[in-house]
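Supplementary Note 3. Input sequence used for the single-chain structure prediction.
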Amino acid sequence: MKHIEVQRTHRIGWLRAAVLGADDGIVSTASLVVGVAAAGANRAAILIAGMAGLVGGAMSMAAGEFVSVSSQADTERAALAVERKELRTEPEAELAELAGLFQARGVDAKVAQEVAEQLTARDAIGAHAREELGITEMTSARPVQAAVTSALAFTVGAALPLLVAALFTGSLRVWLVGSSALVFLAALGVVGARLGGAPAGKAAARVTFWGALAMIVTAAIGKAFGAVV
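The predicted structure, written as discrete structure tokens, is reproduced below.
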């Protein structure tokens, strides 16, 4: 019988950026709206603050992801450059090192040597990148992908609580924005978990808890400053 195995590790790069962006968009914008509304601001001020948070947050996420992932990419390139140099100058030592890595994982010494020789003959730098440095095609840094994905996900996430704030007025706005944001966060947790093949309940509870905590804190601060003003 044919064995069919479904793996989702190829989604690691963009999925992390998407979940982070959407989560940050929902939490930061909902918290901002709740805090400003709790301070007694009018509808126009609330929407302006929310829109500014959406635009600024999306740009910040894009810049932050691009810079941080670019740093990772630079580190990977530097490590690969060192490996290429060592493969040129010390090929025997590198071959022994590769065989030793397989032996450390429980492979018989003779088999480990044969595998190392075959992999070196086929793609020496690729073998050392995977086995020694832990760099693979699926996990390698992609700055542009991370930046674009994060910014778009943040924009979508931030637009949800902002839309609720625009549709409703009065004293119920704070509660409606807060409660809807928790629903959005729970849905995000479920979707992210499903895409990654992880338990949905745990993921939903995790993002909902931290989102609720952020909104409670900002609402309390907004209420306190509103009362002082």
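Residues 15-73+143-228 form one domain. DSSP finds seven helices and no strands in the chain.
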